[in-house]
Glycosyltransferase (Roseateles puraquae), 353 residues
Amino acid sequence: MTQQAGRLLLYAPNVHTGGGFVLLQALLAAWPGDQPLVAWLDDRARARLTLPGRAEVVWVQASAGSRLKAEFTLAAAARKQDRVLCFHGLPPLRRLEAPVWLFQQNRNYLGQVPLAAFGFKTRQRLRFEQSISRWLRHRVARYWVQTPSMARAVQAWYGPQEADIRVLPFAPPAPPAPPAPPASSAPAPRQWDFIYVADGEAHKNHRTLVQAWVLLAAQGLRPSLALTLSARDAGLAAWVQSQADEHGLRITNLGPRSHEDVLALYRCAGALVFPSKGESFGLPLIEARQAGLPILAGELDFVRDVCAPAQTFDPASAVSIARAVRRFLGQPEPPLAPALAADFLQALLAPDA
């Protein structure tokens, strides 16, 4: 009897926003026509996903009961000859007959991002997810990651035993370039000096970025900055607005944007500023590079994995970010000119010292 060919089962609950959702869309768009899609997808993404033909989908709701039920249906469906791709970054709770491949795109699961900056509920959820990742890592046959730095991070987290880790970055195809305007027409107006496409999670580092804008304003520079914070980030957005009001900053929160709108934003901006402290991939860096948009980002491994920034900075320092912005704007901060020892002594001996 001929053995039935195995299937690739796509398990992606909780993938409904951000870069993970964009990559999921790209994966579904490229799904081969001769490979039936068997998938567990987040119900919150249902209206925005285009599924290939012959799709068999279990829609998973944002509840503990629905997630647990999905784990049971996955265990029942997976056969020895199949392969399961856990696209949400966590190993399955139940042991499966099929080998498990895990697409790891969340550094939070590796415990590499301090939890102190997260809210109480988020901290508890992340602690649980970190525990699941560690306790059940033996169920993962292979990890797929997007960058060499992420591969090193997964291996360091995994322990002394060598893990099967494959690096294969993928992204949506670059959008076609807009038609060139007639030679006689004026160049398209720039709507924003800088944009930062990111949600409000702590490692995205919005507060340090805004503090840099405060420093720039104190120096007489007020470049415009567009953010994309959602209603889930209402507390952070309110703080950003209060800083903008107090210091006269030109910061606008555009709210969440579709992927198509984000690509259009790149064409209306002077540069992407990206102060994130850690990413598994950094999709906006890829998209800005494809759009020919200059990038200002942290001098970090994950940044250099995917782009060559126009300026870099220490993402933990508002001063460093402000200096990088000044350099990019052609107004670098002059370096200190040391005085002579005699000048120092004169200051010490001055009557009013």
About this structure: The first helix runs from residue 18 to 29. The longest strand covers residues 37-42. The domain at 192-328 is CATH 3.40.50.2000 (Rossmann fold).
